[in-house]
Amino acid sequence: MSALNTANTKNTNLYDLSFEELTAFLAGQGERPFRARQLYSWLYGKGEGSFAAMTDIPAASRARLSETARADGLFLAESLASADDSTAKYLFGTDDSHYIETVFMKYKDRNSVCISTQVGCRMGCKFCASGRLGLKRGLAPAEMALEVILSEKAAGALAKNIVLMGIGEPLDNFDAVKKFIENFTDDHGRDLSRRAITLSTCGLVPGIRRLASELPQVNLAVSLHAPNDALRREIMPVTKRYGVAEIVEATRQHYETTHRRSTFEYTLIDGFNDSPAHARELAALLRGMNCLVNLIPLNSGGYRGAREQSSTNSSVHRGSGAETAQRFRDILGDRGVPATIRKSLGSDIEAACGQLRLRYES
Ligand code: SAH
User: Of all protein residues, whose CA lies closest to atom 15 belonging to ligand 1?
Assistant: First the structure.
């Protein structure tokens, strides 16, 4: 890359660089091209960011790297494991003293890691703890890569899937998110399939279009949470910018372009959006689409935040009961819209978006 004249900058984070950029960076230090391959495999294949540990790289090269570059940027501040040990939540601190959360979920043979994409969020969803302090900044590609790598290390397992469903709105930090995905799926490094990555959005329509054209293998999840604009506006202010019909249409087009089945997330809030009429309205909206609805009973840890933040939303209080969720699912299913009820993993460790961070960040 011609714009890359960072060879003498101490702060070049190697996890921010594409393979081509790393090759150029190393060439600037007089290294031959195979060094980039070696380094990329350390960084992503082995998840090793410490130059001292890279013992097959000559000491002189490592010394030069230590002076000009880094491959760190997050520290583990706290970790919590759920009682059944299936879910671990990691609180990471950043260089500039912010905190973000990463959740590592262990399933039999498909471990999954849920990463944050921003420090905070500006979307303001009423039930979500992530937005309570607003947006501080977007995360850099290196920070997202380190969330995966450091949480894998802490969990003692590798992730097969990455979901961008933690703190922040990934499509509000598109360029950095794209770079992270490109780096992490580069076949010189980890060589993870882009099909193993899912991005969740509150429905930023231009971003959904960009995702379809620029990262077509990445799976899309859309946080819908209500079947019409009036109801959705009460809990998701972003609805003023992009209405339900427009979001659903962008999701339909995403499928036309990518042939990847999207997921709609629907948080069931007791007495608010969980009636049979709501289910029928949602079914009519999504009928004929190749999609899956994920029903998630509200994690009420977020409600305590919501109530403090918004006294007008007295109807947004707690998750729907199991029977209501099943009835909702059955109404969708009967109308040809496949739906599952997501088991809420890790509610005992404040695993819902942004709940743990609030104890640290101010
Ligand atoms: N900004 C993106 C991704 C982060 S939120 C998005 O909106 O999709 C990830 C998911 O968790 C979203 O579906 C969000 O609506 C949901 N969520 C947030 N707080 C929640 C809570 N307290 N209970 C249940 N789901 C919650």
Answer: 223
Catalytically active residues, by annotation: 101, 353
CATH topology for the 74-361 domain: TIM Barrel (3.20.20)
CA 71/CA 125 separation, integer angstroms: 34
Task: Taking each helix axis as running N to C, give the angle between helix 205-214 and helix 174-184, from 0 to 180 degrees, rounded to the nearest 10.
Answer: 30
Query: How many CB atoms lie under 10 A from the CB of residue 265?
Result: 19
Instruction: Kindly state if the Cβ of 302 falls inside 6 Å of ligand 1.
Output: yes
* Token duo for residue 302: 């977020």
Residue ranges covered by each domain of the chain: 9-70, 74-361
The residues that bridge with 87 in the sheet, in sequence order, are 105
In whole angstroms, what is the distance from residue 344 CA to residue 167 CA? 17
Instruction: Give the chain's end-to-end CA distance (angstroms, integer).
Output: 38
pTM over 0.70: yes
Q: DSSP strand E in 254-317: where?
A: 262-268, 291-297
Q: Which of 165, 224, 308, 341 maximizes ligand 1 atoms within 8 Å of its Cβ, making it the mutation to test the pocket?
A: 165
285-327: pLDDT as tens digits: 999 999 999 999 998 764 444 444 444 444 457 899 999 999 9
Better pLDDT: 117 or 359 = 117
Looking at domain 9-70, its CATH class is mainly alpha
